[in-house]
Amino acid sequence: MVRLSDIDPGSAKHLLDKECRPFETAPWVTGPPVAERRVAIVTSAGLHRRDDRNFSLRDLSYRIIPGDIDTSDLVMTQSSVNYDRTGFQQDVNVVFPIDRLRELRDAGEVGEIADYHYAINGAGWLPHEIEATAREMAGLLKEDRVNAVLLVPV
Amino acid sequence: MRDNTERLRPPRFVWVPFELGRPFGAPDEPEFQTRVLRDVLALFEHDGPSPVLEDFPDDAPGGEMDMTGWTCPIALPSAAETEIPELLRVVLVEIDGLAPWHQAAIENRGRTSTGVLGIPIEETASFLFEVLESVPMSPKQGIPVGEAFRQSCEELKTFYLEAATAKPGTASSRDLAGWFWGGTAAGRLLLALHPAALVSADEGIKRVAETQLVPRLQKYRLG
């Protein structure tokens, strides 16, 4: 996301300097058509229900977002200050496209929506630092019979 | 970031040219958001092999938006009013002026992202003002003062920006940030907090000041 030319040089350097070691394997798992898939969203936007715990500055935990969430219950406590939040403030779907997903499900283009989606505070973590959290979420997604996950960075 | 993704080589990826914070393009643009979502979902039916890295072809709607038709929802303070002794009083006046627009935002959208600390916005401003001089008690039981500081800064920005975007007319996120940081007393308060928080006796407050207080794009205002 975002063109390097569209952000300030400091932010561009910060992002380019991140250690992005290539995945050691290149798995390619096929499955049924999307119209038969069960879809979940994993977002790094630091979203959670209002009554849930706020994310802290350095926080490796995740929050669960029920599939039938009323989006008016979602707040954002992500710790980065270097991205726009006014889009989310106006429309949750700009970071967490749950209404769009529901529309595609109702139209028969998507099979089902998962019982639970997941959110993390994606600011500042390197992949290996958050691997344990990712593995735990992956296990939960499997138990929820999810076979399509949208990883949505912010 | 396309460069980072090319290095990571995940199995499936759609790169979008939208600004950070808006992975599905733009708010209140359901048709455009659905286009992005369909492109992402289509990767599940791609024949491979890994990695499949695709580019979304279009910019988000409103990318060329400017502040034409958008008027500032409050009278901005004079330079004298943003001197530190006056800051809290002027911020509270701004909050009072923005309150009807913030209420309109809640009514129009049916939601708000404010209230994450569960304290009134006026108390949030007062707490931040205290950080200029001391390490106050955390305003929220169970939350360390440094974390409360970070979330209070976000709370103040969120209140202002939700109110500002409830006004008729449209403005880009960059213009809204320029309004908040360059025009309002609240922006001036957060900028004034930067040097004070960097030498705070509380390590949590200090850590927030280092990277989580003033966005990189606004740091030139620190002087």
List descriptors:
heterodimer, A: 154 residues, alpha/beta, five-stranded mixed sheet, 7 strands, B: 223 residues, two-stranded parallel ribbon, 8 helices
Q: What would you say this structure looks like, in words?
A:
- The complex is a heterodimer of chains A (154) and B (223).
- Chain A is an alpha/beta fold and 154 residues long.
- Chain A has 4 helices and 7 strands, in the order αββββααββαβ.
- In chain A, strands 1, 3, 5, 6 and 7 form a 5-stranded mixed sheet that branches. In chain A, strands 2-4 form a two-stranded antiparallel ribbon.
- In chain A, 40% of the residues are buried.
- The model of chain A has no long low-confidence stretch (mean pLDDT 91).
- By secondary structure, chain B is mainly alpha-helical.
- Chain B contains 8 helices and 2 strands.
- Chain B has helices at residues 2-8, 30-42, 84-109, 121-131, 145-166, 173-183, 185-198, 203-211; strands spanning 12-15, 52-55.
- Chain B has a two-stranded parallel sheet with strand order 1-2.
- In chain B, helix 5 packs across helix 8.
- The radius of gyration of chain B is 20 Å and the shape is globular.
- The relative contact order of chain B is 0.12.
- At the A-B interface, helix 1, strand 4, helix 2, helix 3 and strand 7 of A face helix 1, helix 2, helix 5, helix 6 and helix 8 of B.
**Tally of helical runs of chain A:** 4
Query: Average pLDDT across residues of chain A?
Result: 91
Structural class of chain A: alpha/beta
Shape of chain A: globular
Q: What's the layout of helices and strands?
A:
The complex is a heterodimer of chains A (154) and B (223).
Chain A: H1 9-16, E1 38-43, E2 47-49, E3 62-66, E4 74-76, H2 86-90, H3 98-106, E5 112-113, E6 116-120, H4 131-143, E7 148-152
Parallel strand pairs in A: 1-5, 1-6, 1-7
Antiparallel strand pairs in A: 2-4, 3-6
Chain B: H1 2-8, E1 12-15, H2 30-42, E2 52-55, H3 84-109, H4 121-131, H5 145-166, H6 173-183, H7 185-198, H8 203-211
Parallel strand pairs in B: 1-2
